[in-house]
Amino acid sequence: xxxxxxxxxxxxxxxxxxxFGYEVEEIANDMxxxxxxxxxxASKVIHLFATKNATDRYKIAYRYQELHTKPLRxxxxxxxxxxxxxxxEFLALPSPEAECAMIEKATKGIGxxxxxxxxxxxxxxxxxxxxxxxxxxxxxxxxxxxxxxxxLHGDMERIVLNCLQGGEEAYDPQYHTKExxxxxxxxxxxxxxxxxxxxxxxxxxxxxxxxxxxxxxVSDAYAxxxxxxxxxxxxxxxGGNDGKAARFVLGMKLKPYETIxxxxxxxxxxxxxxxxxxxxxxxxxxxxxxxxxxxxxxMYGKTIHDRIxxxxxxxxxxxxxxxxxxxxxxxx
Length: 332
Fold this sequence. Notes:
This protein is an all-alpha fold. The protein is built from 22 helices and no strands. 71% of the residues lie in helices and 0% in strands.
């Protein structure tokens, strides 16, 4: 099955105060004290909140609203600004709501931040995709598929809308046979044959419906016949944002931790940091960030801490470092 990233509390919905414990209420009250009156103690809020995992943040934000009547996201929006404020707003929301807020922000204004869209929508479990679409409609009274069909075009629209269908098959070795893998590998090749992706829709369907175990077998079959893996073929033949999206979906099925690590690097590459992409990656993938961190070191010979320190500053930097420290604490 494709990698799941939502914490269990999102689906369990056990929100009784007894399930939270006294510490959650204490933190919520301490945060209220840090933000009441003129000015806020941002460093204290970061220490109290950004240092927690997704499950604990969910509990704190829920209890905060119960105790102090205002949604924590609204409080953060009033108190903080810039990239720091954006990160804190996302942290204050349950995972599906945070992703919906990210999508809404990515589609505002002129143009669309396609890297945010395809990283959120690409290669999700069916259950998470279903919850994401329902949550988006609940928050914004808009259909997510219709919104993205309006915002995206061409192959980017095709691959994202295929992903939004949430139609990944459950792996069944009696159905997902070696023969089917060979057929799907031929389907991908025959829809290109040197003029890559002349029938992209057929290839995207194979990519999105195939479970990771099967897509690995397809890649192996492709390599046996054509001399290189499916991932290598995508890297060789596909360019632009459409190619990045297709490689991301494929990578999340074959090498999810390495794929996420490469997105973090991409957010920090070139002239200027893509703060929105970096923020979204670190918050969304925090539940698997330990594995991503290890892959990042193996791939690039440097830590995610190093990237954050080099590319960001002030309270925004402190917030991102706190997120990473929940899974990979720095010595000293």
